[in-house]
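so i finally got all the pieces together for this one. its two components total, 577 residues if u count the protein bits. some of the lines might not be protein, just check the labels. i wanna see the whole assembly predicted at once instead of chain by chain like last time, that was a mess tbh
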Amino acid sequence: MAEFLLYYRDPERGYEIGDVVHVLPDGAAWGSMECVDDFLVVRLPGMPIWDAHAYIQPLERETNTGLWRHAWSHDGYTEPTFEMVSRRRWKLDINASMAASGIDPDAFGRVYCEDWLVHEIITPVWVDKAAA
Amino acid sequence: MPTEVISRIKASGGEYTNLSAWEAARNANLVAGDRVEIAEVYGDINAGGCTFAGWTMDDTRYAIVRPAAGERHAGVWDDAKARATVSTGSCFVIDGLNSMKVVIDGMQLGLTGTQTYSSAVSSTTSAVGSLHVIGCIQKGPGTFDGNCGVRVGVAGNFYFVANIIYDFYSAANQFTCGIRNTSASSAVYAYNNTLYNCGRGVKDDYSNIRAKNNLARACVDGYQGTFHADSTHNASDIASDGPATGRVTFSTGFESAAARDLHITTTDAASLVGTDLSADAYYPFNTDIDAQTVTAWSIGADAQAGASGGGGITGSAAITLDDATVSAAGSTVDPVTGTGAITLDDATVSASGSITEPVTGSASVTLGDVTASGVGSVTDPITGSASITLGDAVVTATGGGADMAGGGIQLYVDLRPLSYSVDLRPVSYTVDLRPVSLRVDLRAA
């Protein structure tokens, strides 16, 4: 299983709530500043860590395409080039995921803050920004 | 004077487990906050697509990623030292808004997967104020298209100094490079880098790279494109390769290229005479890949020939050595290093074998009447950032220990006039404080 460090504060700095900042194997010792304020840790049962890494990739757009790529490549060769559109392509819709997983948000927040219990999201609801 | 805020990036036990979380949490207006944000890295961390974006910085209030004390490489990739690796994508993406100053100093950056068109450090989206990649080892994934050690695709000032960059290779793909500039409006300063087994060592599309004292070997093309007119003293194993001014052809050498120990040998040094950049108009500096002070300017990242040579005495201020003998031989690195206030009265600091950094500190390490010696694979005997005082003490270390004082274990001790010995095999150690004997077991620490 994998644990996801989700961005969990007002949208700024290019992150949105629910963006996957980092992933670690189940039971990881997250840093002391990763447990509070800026982030939320959730566990996704059944997701191998090697699959989880796909969720920390940025959303990029290829800029050197079509006529530009073939006619204007500086030294006569084509090269794919990219620019970053968003820090992360994927974000977890936290509210929808909790609802789909049958988790009461208040209970979730209380045990998370008081007991540092990492909740399991059984039915994650992902948002693919590339499709937006 | 800006406040330095240091965060520990560790697999466990630090403030953050990864640089992305650190970047997200510490991201702020550093000018308004009057501070420098420092990420100190311990061991292996997954860079995890760390993107710098949205910060407000200036020349004195900025962000640094660097190894913690005792975690810096010794010029050769070391899995036991601070490193940031990724198996997908790039290690660092710098996305600037013109107000960024990011310094990546002394790190090991590696691409470990089968990725393509990725970089150890990349700037491709919007203009950067300045990016400094200094004294880093950048290891590519081998033969995969389009990967680069550092890749510049936007406007800004980019300083790539004393790095060792290797294994970003593709025979046919022209975009697989050690250092690459694709921006028409950048200013790139590539000084004293060693590029080995790269498709193209240094590639410049727009004559914006000032290439000085670089060394390219075993690349398909050491230098491709047209370089800034200031470029000089670059070496390649390919004849007539690179900017013509001061060009050197160099086809043999290194301590062990197969093992990627790209330190130069004494023989290499004779033919790799570089230009003095200690007073360079754009980026004056005087340290090499081993953080050793450069006294004789050579070409490439390693300035001091010899097998991982000792660092001698380095520091920026206030190191006092009264009646002291400081000696180092073999693979020792950095005996006596600091940035201020290290005093060694009547001291003998000696080391032979594979010792790393005996006596290191950033302030207030005092060794009165001390003999500090180490033999074997000891790492970091006596390190600290403040207030380690050892009056009339004898400090010896033998075996495979590490971090006697410093790093994760901080000792603040004043033991004069006592003598004591420390055995660091391998985790627990005994401190003899005659007439008091004390055993300290730190296995759970």
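The two ends of chain B are 35 Å apart (CA to CA).
The first strand of chain B starts at residue 3 and ends at 9.
anyway lmk what u think
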